[in-house]
Amino acid sequence: MRFGATFSQRIELIILFIGIIYSIIIFLACILGAIVGLGGGVFIRPIFDAIGYHPVLDIGFFSSTAILSMAVVSTVKKMRDGTAIDVKKALLISAGALLGGMLGNLLLEHLLAAFGTQRPVQYMQIIATIVVLIFSLILTAKSNMRYELKSKLYAAVLGVALGAIASFLGIGGGPINVPLMMIFFGLNIKDATAYSIIIIFFSHLSRIITLGVTVGYAHFDLSVLPYVIIAAAAGGLVGARLSKTFSEATVRKLFQGAICIVILLNIVNGLFLI
Q1: CA distance 108 to 56
Q2: CA distances to 146, 152, 175 from 257, in Å
Q3: Which tens digit of pLDDT belongs to each residue from 96-147?
Q4: Separation between Cα atoms, residue 51 and residue 192, nearest integer Å
Q5: Which phi and psi angles does 98 have, rounded to 5°?
Q6: Helix or strand or coil: residue 148?
């Protein structure tokens, strides 16, 4: 009995330690994510991969839960602060992202089942993430590329693409949401981040629902979930408050700097997998 109690206490300490580490990472990631519209997943997934305590599917679940919690708090805060959002446009793109999120998650599960091991899928995610991030940097720098798409069909198709990319890569979608929203809808970067977070909310809501239906929530390590949710919500609130005080130029620099950091993180993770 004494051995059992000691073993149980050790497990609790491990959970507490992992929960604290995850909380710090998620809190900081969601602050920056809420400011620049990245969602935080671009930092959470590669860092959790590097820690290596949980498998790929669990990390994707934690990342989506954190992003969802951050998105709710951040969006409510920004709307209360007076950020102008075209609700119809946001819902139309988000509806597409909802479908795209389901497709992206199904693709991830299919690849994991097909390969029978998570390492090849991790390589795929890392390479695809780096390509998407470099593409995002190029598009953000192209300030002369501005259009205003009026077609509802284009908005929905764009939403599907954004949702699928976000869900499959587990990066929150922001790295590609923000520049494409700026280019195709003529938005400045601060407004684009607000729309990005709404899209992120719906795409990752669909991911969590899909995981519950296909895999079941009991499949995941739920012991760290309270740490994930609380840290993400707190980070979203702090990030939304800071976003209000920053200029558009500052947000752009933070966005580009964050993208560069995440590219390096993914390169390092890829090297460790070799």
Answers
A1: 10
A2: 22, 33, 12
A3: 877 887 788 788 888 888 888 878 888 888 888 888 888 878 877 766 666 6
A4: 32
A5: -60, -45
A6: strand
| Cα end-to-end distance, the chain, whole Å | 43
Quick check: helix, strand or coil at residue 82? coil
The structure's pTM equals 0.73
Q: Of 216, 215, 181, which is closest to residue 94 (Cα–Cα)?
A: 181
Strand partners, 148: 185
DSSP characters for 85-98? --HHHHHHHHHHHH
Q: Which tokens is 209 given? A: 């629902």
**CA distances to 31, 34, 265 from 43, in Å:** 11, 12, 8
174-185 vs 2-36: helix crossing angle, rounded to 10: 20
**C-alpha to C-alpha distance for 242 and 147, rounded to whole angstroms:** 29
Q: How far apart are CA 140 and CA 66, in angstroms?
A: 25
Q: Is 168 in contact with 112 (CB distance < 8 Å)?
A: no
The 10s digit of each residue's pLDDT in 138-155 is 877 766 666 666 677 778
- Among 63, 42, 67, 106, which Cα is nearest to 198's? 67
Entry field: residues in the chain: 274
**What is the CB neighbour count within 10 angstroms for residue 104?**
27
- The CA distances from residue 32 to 1, 93, 238, in Å, are 47, 23, 9
Q: Using the Cα atoms of residue 79, residue 80, residue 82 and residue 88 in order, give the sign of their dihedral.
A: positive
Q: Which residues contact 132 (CB under 8 A, 6 or more apart)?
A: 165, 169, 171, 175, 176
Cβ of 87: how many Cβ atoms within 10 Å? 9
